[in-house]
HNH nuclease domain-containing protein (Allocatelliglobosispora scoriae), 442 residues
Amino acid sequence: MGVTGVAELVDGLEAGTGSSPIYSSPIYLSDDDLIASVDAVMVAVSRLAAVQAGLVREIHGRGLAKKLGASSTLAWLEDRFLLAGSSAARLLKVAVEADRDAPAASAALATGAVNADQVLAIAAAMRELDDVDAATRVKAEEQLVEFAAVHDPQRLAVLGRRILDTVDPAASEAREAELLRKQEERAYRARAFNLSPDHLTGRVKVSGWLDSESAAIVRAAIDPLCAPGRARLRPHTSDDQTADQAALPDAVDDRLPTQRRADALVDICRLAMATGDLPDNGGERPQLAVMAEFDVLTGELKTGTLDTGEQLSPEAVRRIACDCGLLPGVMDGTGQVLDLGRERRLWTGAARKAILLRDRGCAFPGCDRPPRWTDIHHVTQWQHGGGTDQRNGAAVCGHHHRVVHQGHWQVRIADDGLPEFIPPAYIDRQRRPQRNRYHRRP
């Protein structure tokens, strides 16, 4: 079809319609005429898509794009027709890949029986049958073209994966197993995990892919930690009850499911680091390194910096410093290290074990996290003279450690040696101390 032929096709589509309401004001069409007109246009679009694909295929086959100075046919399409990269790639797939992998579907496109998206779905299904004999491939493609009369591209893709059930049932089961094996191999090879910091917002984007088996392992580890926190009883109204028998009205875990999953992932990593079973990194145990300036006049930690370059607020530094090793250092005015002291653990093994045995898990009221998921929080911060004995420590999970360091809750050790949490006034106007009763239930 030459230029004249293309012009004739376009003219044919417009024949008798130059003054038609289709072009001027479809508002004047009846319902039936409006639907019929849309049907006709959709068929015409498919037919024109076939013509377009044929022309692009010929341009690609002749290598015209490179002769014209473009790096590829794709780049030429983007530049000449100002197409988005995805649109140009789709056009090239219809022109080249679909014609090669699904010739019957491409022929059906020329008649308007299928649309371009359906052709791409059929072509993708046919590529998965590359080791099937030619006769079976022909039958499979013909069947998918028939299915296209009543199924959209997404459904065609599903049917395409099981097309052998229809055209060759005897080979279908073995074929399905082989397809799954290949799919698993591709998924495993494509596995990826990325942490992309956004320094403007203080967030880090987590992205990547896992194969189904690996994802199941991650899901099995995370799911138990994603359940909402246990609800507690409403506060008492009788003045003759002791305050530590009360429960708070805001006990319901208000974190979003996505937030609970994020917290669970961090908890799992924290547990893995605490076990000591991870391989060494550069001769040292895996550790979180934060550099923070200590103001000797105020006795406060200032803004900290992770070894990856991200900055942390003083609150975050204090939270991390609750349960860590300290490595004191002296620096000059330019930040160069002049002298390093010895690392000193704030909570030694014996003190830590004693607190975990006492608290039996996260001590925050209503929390059910077990001991292995907890940090040791300083009731009085170490930089304010707080010691590392049982009277100055309380076990808290990562989530409630953050809650405590936000400053609204206060922690103290009662006369009987157990930790109590004093809520802010907006939760309990009387600010009655609360305890975790979950770990001490009968």
Remarks:
- The mean pLDDT is 80.
- The longest helix spans residues 31-62.
- The chain is about 45% helix and 15% strand.
